[in-house]
From TrEMBL:
It comes from Steroidobacter gossypii. Pfam families: PepSY_TM. This is PepSY domain-containing protein. The keyword Transmembrane applies. The chain crosses the membrane at residues 12-36, 156-178, 224-245, 380-401. Keywords: Membrane, Transmembrane, Transmembrane helix.
Amino acid sequence: MSMGRQFWVIAHRWAGLTIALFLAVAGITGALLAFMHELEAWLAPQAHLVSAPTADSKPLDSVELRERIQALYPGAVINYLPLHVEPGHTLKLGVDRLDPVSGAIAPWSPTMDEVFVDPYTGKIVAERLWGDPTQGAITLMTFLYRLHYTLASGKIGRYVLGIAALVWTVDCFIGFFLTLPQRRRREASCAEQSARPWWPRWKPSWLVRWRGGKHKVTFDLHRAGGLWLWPLLFVFAWSSVSFNLDEVYDPVMKLFGQEQLLDGVPALAKALHAPTLDFRAAVERGREHARREAEHRGLTLNPEGFSALLYRPKQGVYVYYFTTDRDFTNRGGRTMVLFDGNTGELRKVRLPQGQNGANTFTNWILALHMGSVWGLPYRIAVSALGLLVTMLSVTGVLIWMKKREARSLAALKLGRVRSAVAQ
């Protein structure tokens, strides 16, 4: 083995050992999170599911439901409002409060920052603190999300997983390189070099020798599994950097022309928590902007698709999400218009694809990571991939342990031979 290849073998080994535990945790939790929506409803149906009073009953307007919740929680801050209520489900709203001392937005109470509302009656059917493992089934999946995203350790955990994702991204290329057939020695004859073309020498890397013994099976599962899954592994690794280490991801993607939603929208000197346009007026303004931009850009609106309104007090702007024929995710709602909270003036339009190549790439890898494209079959594939990532981590550790044992035995034998010679 050449010195250069030996270096990359060592780099791959220690990169894998460093991130193995993190990838195993992310893989197992990710396998479950691919079905988070269904599992939450199964674990806590009293919070997520609801029946219409009559067959022809229609849910109340989301803005009205928000106003009712604010009446029940005086001073509540609800800056994100889904405008589309899924049939048979409650409306989930985040409920925060404004800290009078710091001016920061914080959870409503130490035990609650979300409410579940019956959209037909406006009645609160459940409350929870998102990600709190002590509240039982109603927060179990959100805790797994925290574990998946931050190791349930806040900002420190997010950075740790971000660095692991960055190492994983680089290691994807190292691992791929190591599967390639090694160059033949220079002294080999031309006839010998042409006897076995390049592909037949690489082909074994794609196969598993099921009858080759435990170590060979383990090694082949690790190598062949990484090859077959390589495109998705890279997608999940680099998208994880986007989620957890945007300090690295954003500058890199900016080199390719990526733009952030709030680029060119400066923060205000003081956060604006009560803009001139209230939520009801902002919803109407958002719909108006959406209609105009759809007509101007030749987009087809989907009135049955997902829509929502988000307010950003630090910038004093609203973001209206709606669904058009440019949306490719299962639920849609990733077409956006951003407008001023006081004047309603349109500031920016964002399309999920076809507007900016780097942004389209990011939107796609994030959607692939979250299993929000191509329906149920792909979500099953994402869940399986989570388990396979865990398998790659475990087999990598087993391969290292086996080689470490072999090196230890070789060193022991060498020591005995030297001792015998010395005597």
